[in-house]
């Protein structure tokens, strides 16, 4: 056994597990990549680390500096963990309607939380952070939505790991948040095999976001290249919870709500193709969603609660 | 043929506060032409001056984004569910 210098060394190289028993098509294999196994508990540890390393290399960060970042939680938690070890302070602009566990984890890592209006969703956190940083010239702004180190973390890490562990992959399915996972993995996999299809799964967040004045307040992350995707599909809260439960009860995998959504998307792919091998990325574990009652409440109640929070 | 379209909160004021409206057409583009003639205030919100889809607007036919189907030429039937949503990030 190796003794690692720090938990930073445990980021990436996540395991893949066969979940084909959930495939609606017996000729289609589904493999799940368990990003909840990262030390900070989500896929976002990868981009948090890569953004910090690239900024350090570029001389844009100095010890004791404060980093400001808009995040619906997971990127903030990954940054929080790494900032403790590398000597940075952290302020996260967080939508008020995220699960309580996301907020608590940020606090556990000593991050300062600046709350943005829930009715603006993640767009509101981006808007507020952009306004704040203009007044805080001494703060570092990694800005995951426009930082090439975000997709690059997946181009260098997640993508090659998938290709190494599952070279027979025909479809890659993952949730769409900053779009970094789909951009980096999508670019890497299609370079290896242009026939690999890239499917994006998203929640109907636009229905919850009531606080935008008009459609010009919409937001498309600058790192997004729409041409890399083959399909983009909405999976609603109820279906996300149903598949999150199936993952737990039938595969023993305790994953978060966006993972259930991604798996629902993988099942839709499996129904549409004759045969193939789907890799689905499960972005985080279930721990941060226990308070939503996703596993324990009546499905209607769980759906009502999940419909009010940002879980991507 | 009338098809039901679900509107996001921000567009509802242009349609008298309605959550869903009906429009006629065989493609999403035809539905939008009917929609914007019924509710002219939506025109600048949904489409660019050249008639293409506004970049911060996502349109879904049965939960699939039309940009990855046939864009505004995506065919629709009376049983399809159309949703218009603003572009929103996560992360």
Q: Descriptors for this entry?
A:
heterodimer; A: 312 residues; alpha/beta; 6-stranded mixed sheet; 4-stranded parallel sheet; 10 helices; 10 strands; globular; B: 91 residues; alpha+beta; Ubiquitin-like (UB roll); 5-stranded mixed sheet; 2 helices; 25% strand
Descriptive account of the structure:
The complex is a heterodimer of chains A (312) and B (91). Chain A is of the alpha/beta class. In chain A, the strands form two sheets. Chain A has a six-stranded mixed β-sheet. The longest helix of chain A has 17 residues. Chain A starts with 15 loop residues before the first strand and ends in a 6-residue tail after the last helix. Chain B has 91 residues and is of the alpha+beta class. Chain B has one domain: Ubiquitin-like (UB roll), CATH 3.10.20. Chain B is built from two helices and five strands; from the N terminus they run ββααβββ. In chain B, a hairpin with a 2-residue loop joins strand 3 and strand 4. Chain B starts with a strand and ends in a 5-residue tail after the last strand. Classes of the chains: A alpha/beta (312), B alpha+beta (91). The interface between A and B is large, with 46 and 25 residues.
């Amino acid at each position: 056994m190796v003794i690692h210098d720090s938990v930073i060394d445990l980021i990436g190289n996540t395991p893949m597990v066969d979940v084909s028993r959930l495939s609606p098509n017996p000729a289609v294999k589904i493999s799940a990549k368990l990003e909840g196994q990262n030390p900070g508990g989500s896929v976002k540890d990868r981009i948090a680390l890569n953004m910090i390393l690239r900024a350090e290399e570029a001389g844009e960060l100095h010890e004791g500096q404060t980093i400001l970042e808009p995040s619906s939680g997971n990127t903030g938690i990954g940054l929080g963990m790494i900032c403790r070890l590398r000597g940075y302070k952290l302020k996260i602009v967080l939508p008020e309607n995220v699960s309580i566990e996301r907020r608590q984890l940020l606090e556990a890592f000593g991050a300062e939380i600046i709350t943005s209006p829930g009715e603006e969703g993640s767009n509101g956190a981006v808007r507020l952070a952009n306004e704040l940083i203009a007044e805080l010239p001494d703060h570092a702004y990694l800005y995951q939505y426009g930082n090439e180190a975000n997709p690059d973390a997946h181009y260098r890490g997640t993508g090659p790991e998938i290709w190494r562990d599952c070279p027979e992959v025909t479809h890659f399915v993952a949730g769409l948040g900053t779009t970094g996972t789909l951009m980096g993995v999508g670019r890497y996999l299609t370079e290896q095999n242009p026939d690999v299809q890239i499917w994006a799964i998203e929640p109907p967040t636009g229905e919850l976001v009531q606080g935008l004045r008009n459609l010009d307040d919409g937001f498309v992350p600058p790192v997004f290249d729409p041409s890399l995707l083959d399909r983009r599909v909405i999976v609603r809260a109820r279906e996300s919870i149903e598949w999150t439960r199936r993952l737990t009860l039938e595969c023993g995998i305790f994953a978060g709500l966006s993972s259930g959504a991604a798996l629902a998307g993988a099942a839709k792919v499996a129904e549409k193709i004759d045969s193939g091998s789907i890799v689905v990325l499960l972005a985080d574990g279930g721990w941060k969603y226990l308070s939503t009652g996703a596993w324990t409440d009546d499905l209607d109640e769980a759906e009502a609660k999940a419909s009010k929070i940002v879980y991507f | 043929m009338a098809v039901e379209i679900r509107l996001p909160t921000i567009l509802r004021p242009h349609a008298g506060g309605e959550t869903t409206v009906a429009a006629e057409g065989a493609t999403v583009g035809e539905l939008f032409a009917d929609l914007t003639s019924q509710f002219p205030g939506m025109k600048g919100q949904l489409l660019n001056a050249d008639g293409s889809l506004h970049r911060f607007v996502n349109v879904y036919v049965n939960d699939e984004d039309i940009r990855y189907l046939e864009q505004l030429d995506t065919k629709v039937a009376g049983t399809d569910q159309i949703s218009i949503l603003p572009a929103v990030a996560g992360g």
